[in-house]
Every structure is written in structure tokens, then in C-alpha cells.
Amino acid sequence: MKRIEVAGVGIAYRSDGNPNGPPLLLLHSAGSDLRMWDPHVLALGEGFRLVRVDARGHGGSDAPPPPYTVNRLGADVVALMDALEIPRAHIVGASLGGLVALRIAADHPGRVDRAVFSGTAARIGTPEAWQERADAVRAGGTEAVTEIVMSRFFSPAFRRDHPDVVGWFADVLRAQSPHGYEATCLALRDADLRDAVGAIQAPSLILVGDQDASTPVSDATWLHHAIGGSRLLTLEGAGHLCSVERPGIFDEVVARFLRGEEIA
Q: Could you give the CA distance from residue 30 to residue 125 in angstroms, rounded to a whole number?
């Protein structure tokens, strides 16, 4: 893992895959870190130069005091692209990472080739819910919200059948900086890109699990209609982190889309 400094904040990242392939940025969910993409490195890294980023407040990146904003998180990623001399890249974001990817694609159309927005929305949840979660973390740390976050990340069937995977994500959440995660919740409380996403020009694929309780199919459908020419694909039986629940089909569809091939 390497780090760069952006506006006085250390941002951690990893480079994997084909160093001669087209650059592909992978942005993780809130409460996770760049390791959520570990299972995808082999499949996606064959054809792409993967750059995985820890958002500020997460993983190996610094966790400065609030405020955080989705604009700031997007600016961190663009600054990393500049530091790595990547003028233009594909981008794949899940949940919070998808919201950040929406921000980058809307604000920096010249920097994004193709975009995949997975389990995300232009407005995730409600301000009240995010404020409640931030308050819980302030009072009791990340442990206080671990159970509710896992129930929002994964479908009931996946939680039942894959306790090892769910347990790993729970441990990752518990290890996050409490004030970094709280600041991220407040950023999500305030983030509303519904007036911005219509400006996205990059060819876009929207992925959603039909069991997603955090950004349901209705949110994905709204996003699909707002982004001209976008594709929408629903993954049956999958929850919010559909890349985790359906890794095989996720990797296949994403790789085909980023290569410009037809997808079913």
C-alpha cells in the first residue's frame, strides 16, 4: 500500500493488475476499505490497471476532523489521478464509492472513460437516518452500529449462508476510525446529487441487487433515467453490496461493459 498527501491528508491506495491496461479506479463503501475489492483483483486485473483507494477516514488513509463532503472525497480521487499521471480512467464505485464516482463523472467529464455505479443513488437514505447513525457512533463507536450496517449491506440469505464474509466486513467496520466514520455519515447526510447527475456524459452502467435495502431498485431506476444512455442491470437475490454477493456475474458484466462489449 502506498500513500500520497492531498490538502494535508494522507490518502492510501494500491495498484494491481495489468500495468499496461487501461486504468480502472475502484472506490469502496462507507465503513469498508480498499480490501473489499480483493476478490475482484484477479478477474478485473487481467485486462485493467487497477487503482484501489481508501477514502479519507477509512483504512490506511488519514482520518482528519470533519467536515467531510462528497465533493472533497471526489477531489481526493482526482488528486490521486494527477499524482499517478492518469489523465483519464474507468471508474467503479460501490455505495459511498458510487456516490463519489457520480460526483467525479459529473464534475470532471474529461477524466472518466466509462463508469459503473453499484448499489448507490444520487441521494442515499435520509438526512435523519445518517444523523442518527453519526450520533450512535459518537456515543458508542463503530461497534454501536455494526449490526445495523451489516443488515443494510447484505441480504438475509447471504448473512445466513456466509457468516464468515459478513464477519470480515463487521471486523473491518469496527476497525475504522470512529470520528472518520462519523464524519463520513455526516457527509452522506448532506450529499444530494439529484440536480447534478444529468450532466454525466460517460457511458454508464448501474448495478443494483433486488434485495438492496439501502439503495433499492427504485433508486437505481431513477438514476438510470437521469443519466442519458445509461444501462441498468438488476442482480437477483443480491443485497446492497452486490459485488460481494454476486462476484462472478459482477466481474463478468463490469469487464464486458468497460471493454465496450454488449451485456445482456
A: 13
206, 231 Cβ separation under 8 angstroms: yes
216-253 burial, b if ≥16 CB within 10 A, otherwise e? Answer: beebbebbbebbeebbbbebeebbbbbbbbbeebbbeb
Pick from 202, 204, 203, 208: nearest CA to 249: 208
Quickly tell me which residue has 464534475 as its cell.
107
Beta strands in 143-240 (DSSP E): 204-209, 231-235
Say what the pTM is.
0.97
pLDDT digits (tens, 9 = 90+) for 215-255: 999 999 999 999 999 999 999 999 999 999 999 999 999 99
pLDDT tens digits for 47-102? Answer: 999 999 999 999 999 999 989 999 999 999 999 999 999 999 999 999 999 999 99
Q: Residue 141 — pLDDT band, cuts 50, 70, 90?
A: very high
* Cα gap 218→220, rounded to integer Å: 5
Q: In the chain, where are the structural domains located?
A: 2-258
2-258: CATH, from 2.60.40.10, 3.40.50.10190, 3.40.50.1820, 3.40.109.40: 3.40.50.1820
Residue 10 and residue 2: Cα distance in Å, rounded? 10
Residue 75 in contact with residue 4, Cβ under 8 Å?
A: no
**CA gap 127, 124 in Å, rounded:** 9
Query: What is residue 225's three-state secondary structure?
Result: helix
Q: Phi and psi at residue 231, in whole multiples of 5°?
A: -110, 145
Q: For residue 246, give every residue at least 6 positions away whose Cβ sits within 8 Å of its Cβ, in sequence order, or none.
A: 209, 235, 237, 238
Count other Cβ atoms within 10 Å, centred on residue 47. Answer: 15
